[in-house]
Amino acid sequence: MEGLEPVLATELETLGGDEIEILNRAVACTGNKMLLYKANYQLRTALKVLVFLKEFTVRNEHDLYNEVKKINWSEYFSLENTFAIDAVVNSTIFNHANFIALKTKDAIADYFREISGARPNVDSKDPDMKINVHIRENIVTLSLDSSGSSLHLRGYRRQQVDAPLNEVLAAGMVLLSEWNATTPLIDPMCGSGTILCEAARIAGNIPPQDSEREFTFKRWNNFDEELWDQVCRNAMDEATPESIPEIRGYDISPRALEVSRANIELAGLSDYIQLGHEDFFYQDSYENITLIFNPPYDERMKEKDILTFYKDIGDKLKRSFTNCTAWILSGHHEAIKNLGLRPSARKKLLNGSIPSVFYKYVLYQGSKKQKWQNLSNDDSK
Questions:
Q1: 109-144 tens-digit pLDDT
Q2: What's the per-residue H, E or C state across 185-207?
Q3: How far apart are CA 101 and CA 311, in angstroms?
Q4: Residue 380: is it exposed, middle or buried by C-beta count within 10 angstroms (0-12/13-18/19+)?
């Protein structure tokens, strides 16, 4: 996901990936089958885990067909398996991803027909083998999709409110914030509770996926069930839910709290996350906490006066959150200026299709200038 590549690279390094390379909206690395299983089960900021198969150059669709057909596809799946093609095209040679998917499918089907007289069936919804074709100008990269459905689908968000935050983006925000997972964390506009769930799992080192999830790699010829069980056991042995600190979510909407409560329960986190029905602008004062939130903005949710809304957020932060750190995701670049606060860090992210920025605000009593003046006066005594 755009903006989270360095975070994903760090995750891969922690899991044991080698030769890590940050790309555009992707991270490449080398590793063994154990890493493949760990990546699908434990990565928080990946949408897919693709296994590189082949790269080649083409001049036209005939070159594509011939190169795809050369691959020994029976090494990866058989006639009894279903397959599907997922094509992504960014090229002046080829204009239509569907056409590329069709030519790739034909090449694989003809490969099987020539060696066996039959061809495997296509299943676009739930295939046993999903082949990813990526074309950048004349360079074609073929990969096997080991994940299946997108890894942002954790399984706990069965309900949602308007403009829900993607789970991968929420986890990335928590990791980007460098929250130490020991001090309290609050999402004062919690919506569907996604930030709360991802923060709790990060703090407790709980895997983001369910071990029973139907990853596509479980259907591959070389699936090692014993190794998979070992990866899952090791990950759960390292989980420390008892170390999750105070995590709270608030929202002015009873419906949002109802959705959050249901999602938190499905995630198995009801014992670790507190919810409250409160208007942010009337919440109690806090010190030494981290706030992470995604206020509504009028690209997705209509505020009568978005500029005034953000000014009120800034006033509340300055008045009630002394010695706290606030991280705010916003895609409304004019409104965010009305906070009246100077960000100490900015991280560009993509929230759905909306270019957004994740802003960090370190909140002091009084102005930042006054804080450092006070420190200087104390040192001179």
A1: 999 999 999 999 999 999 999 999 999 999 999 999
A2: EEECCCCCCHHHHHHHHHHCCCC
A3: 49
A4: exposed
- Which among 361, 356, 362, 363 has a CA at the least distance from the CA of 172? 356
Residue 37 has phi, psi (to 5 degrees) of: -70, -45
Residues 6 or more apart whose CB falls under 8 angstroms from that of 242 comprise 204
Per the listing, tokens 């602008």 go with 281
Q: CB under 8 Å to 10, separation ≥6 — which residues?
A: 175
pLDDT in tens, 62-71: 999 999 999 9
Alpha carbon dihedral 374, 375, 379, 381, in 10-degree steps, equals 20
Three-state secondary-structure class, residue 276: strand
In order of start, what are the domains of the chain with their CATH numbers?
5-145 (3.30.2130.30), 167-210+220-370 (3.40.50.150)
**Rounded CA separation 279/85 (Å):** 48
Which of 326, 322, 331, 319 lies closest to 281, judged by CA? 319
- Say if residues 348 and 357 touch (Cβ distance below 8 Å): yes
Residue 355 contacts by C-beta under 8 Å, 6 or more apart in sequence?
A: 331, 348
What is d(CA 261, CA 204) in angstroms, rounded to the nearest whole number?
A: 19
CA separation for the pair 1, 352 (Å, rounded):
10
Buried b (16+ CB within 10 A) or exposed e, 74-104: eebbeeebbbbbbbebeeeebeebeebbebb
Tens of pLDDT, residues 302-341 = 555 888 899 999 999 999 999 999 999 999 888 999 999 9
Q: How far apart are CA 168 and CA 45, in angstroms?
A: 5
pLDDT digits (tens, 9 = 90+) for 166-212: 999 999 999 999 999 999 999 999 999 999 999 999 999 999 999 99
